[in-house]
Amino acid sequence: MISKFLAAMAVAAVLHITPTVVLVQRPDAVKALLPGAEAFFAREVHLSNTDAHRLHEAVDWSPEDGVLTFYTGKTADRVAGALVFVRVDTPHGPVEVAVGFTPAGAIGGVVVTKATVETKPWVLEALRAGLVDGYKGLKPGSTPAGAAALKDRIGALPAYMAGQLDKGVARALLAYGTFYRGAKT
After folding, report:
1. Would you say 108 and 102 are in contact if contact means Cβ atoms under 8 Å apart?
2. CB 37 within 8 A of CB 73
3. Which of 6, 29, 88, 99 has the most CB atoms lying inside 10 A of its own CB?
């Protein structure tokens, strides 16, 4: 037991991961990204080994337990949109983005929901510089380039985190385009 603890401490020291902090509560992100929605539904997509491998090869990501969960918001008479939460593991700890899609299939908004104590200031600097504005309107097949757009306006560490957030958005675009919009319902 002690050896497992010491091994875990050694890994944490090497990676210097700090505790995760919530920047925006998930329910608040859902309300912001699915405006006007009155009812919410979750759709779980259980990935086959082949699909999980394709996703990993394309965007270096494997969702937890091989399950993608999409949240759909509906009003009384229409679909307000859908969203997915995506985690990106960095050497400084995880960040999480919520990516909302309009009924037309374009990104309607992105909210960073989690970071770590260490990365929070860098993430906030990238957000203040307008990082998420560059994601609006992107459709599956697009490549997020928010970090590149900000590289001369923010410091090196915020630019690094912007690149990590770009990864999260790229993962959401591929997951949505392939397993949500592409799914037969």
Report:
1. yes
2. yes
3. 99
Is the four-CA dihedral 135, 128, 94, 70 of positive or negative sign? negative
Determine the Cα–Cα distance for residues 24 and 56; give it in Å rounded to an integer. Answer: 27
Neighbours of 174 (CB within 10 A): 17
**How many residues are there in the chain?**
185
d(C-alpha 131, C-alpha 126), whole Å = 6
